[in-house]
Amino acid sequence: MCGRFALFHSREEYLTALQLPVIVNKTVDTPKWCYNISPGTNVVIIQQQERKIELSLAYWGYAPKWWREQGKQPLINARAETASSSKMFSPLWNHERALVPASGWYEWKKSPDNPRIKQPYFIYARDKMPLFFAAFKARDKEGEEGGVVVLTAASRAGLKDIHDRRPLALTLQAAREWLDNTITPPTEEMLADVYSFQADEFAWHPVSSAIGAVRNDTAALIAPIDSPKI
After folding, report:
1. Which spans in the chain are helix H?
2. Which among 34, 61, 124, 133 has most CB atoms closer than 10 A?
3. What is residue 193's predicted lDDT score, i.e. its pLDDT?
4. H or E element, residue 154
5. Which positions ≥6 away from 99 have C-beta within 8 Å?
6. Of 92, 79, 88, 99, whose CA–CA distance to 15 is shortest?
């Protein structure tokens, strides 16, 4: 899953990496750099609107009216394997696609002997380049609340040892195509297998449990520690 991430590359690094062929509508001049971004807060998103690329802020969490009427909490992730056919996310699949820029994300590895013992890890691109998570950004409509969800897929290889789910960090070409609502998105399997980075393109290391408190927000949160619990 993706329940906490960091954003500390510069805006220019993200936009340069994407090499977008259209003018960016800079609705957010300076994103809020943060080492501890949590659900229920505003996150930076990149989305195409009327053939212009917009950089803006949006609430991380999505709950359409019918979902809220059941008393359920907003969802922060969407399973890529079922998103295009689910009642919740199929309306967003073709025209509400977005990117969430990130520098890395956190996962908690559970002890096989005692699931209550967890060790957080910071996961990032091995080349330390910016990441772009595939996401949906629902538009605010009458009676409906817009919000952001990050797509996830099953982890593989060594990354699976940390957590069984991962955010879909798209390749740069796939990220550009994901934004283009005139292009039919690839199948869920292609997203997970071809259009997103795989385990060998990431690096990770254990970090302090201080990441668990949302009030903590310093570069020390991504620093490796010498004696992890797991």
Report:
1. 11-18, 65-68, 90-93, 172-179, 188-193
2. 133
3. 86
4. strand 147-154
5. 45, 46, 47, 132, 133, 134, 135, 170, 175, 178, 179
6. 99
In a 3-state reduction of DSSP, which class is residue 95? coil
d(CA 194, CA 135): 17
Strand-pair category, 147-154 with 77-79? parallel
pTM across the whole model: 0.94
pLDDT in tens, 165-204: 999 999 999 999 999 988 888 888 888 888 899 999 999 9
Euclidean distance between CA atoms 3 and 76, whole angstroms: 7
Q: Is 214 exposed, middle or buried (0-12, 13-18, 19+ CB in 10 A)?
A: middle
| pLDDT tens per residue, range 200-223 | 999 999 999 999 999 999 999 999
The beta-carbon contacts of 174-177 under 8 Å, at least 24 apart in sequence, are 175/18, 175/99, 175/132, 175/134, 176/18, 176/19, 176/20
Share of the chain above pLDDT 90, in %: 71
Pairing of strands 52-59, 77-79: unpaired
Within its chain, how far is the Cα of 59 from the centroid?
Answer: 13
Model confidence at 133: pLDDT above 60: yes
CA–CA distance, 123 with 219 (Å, rounded to integer): 14
pLDDT of residue 30: 52
pLDDT at 192: 87
* Distance, CA of 20 to CA of 62 (rounded, Å): 27
